[in-house]
């Protein structure tokens, strides 16, 4: 079975650690090797993720070996207002559309893909680039198992279940940065640490459970798996 390499441009250390230590080992068993890379130059401060900044990194990886692939892992909350598709999402919401998390992600990812393909002609970006926008941020995945999340954070499980019970999926929590999953965890657990706790909790929950509970996350991994199957046809 042939293997493939996929560079994942990530927004921060939480995502980098998750991809490197939790997700990559699982995907490696399938011949898919994930290589997380922090966006921007070393030491560059965070803040909103600007498309021009992301585009530079994506393009640099596309220009490397043509047999590699490129993906992303950016929080919906962190991409800036100029991001491809962001204006369309806002327009539809203003016009009364109740977009689900997946519908918003589909709009953003389709627009992102179009811009990258247009910008990097000659690098087979239409086949090699697979955008992924986290809905609404990484910590949503940690709500895939209330019992594990409660155990690892010492938060009352009923409080976690109360949050989960208001949504059809962890990925629907929450279209408001002030009530984002990480903010909710920080409010319930003084001293919650995004990087360390994110790894420990996601590892304990397991990728299989996260995939079952988070459809958009599962769809992303399925697309990556299809790349590997395509190579082996």
From TrEMBL:
InterPro entries: DUF4276. Pfam families: DUF4276. It comes from the Bacteria. This is DUF4276 family protein. It comes from Geotalea uraniireducens (strain Rf4) (Geobacter uraniireducens).
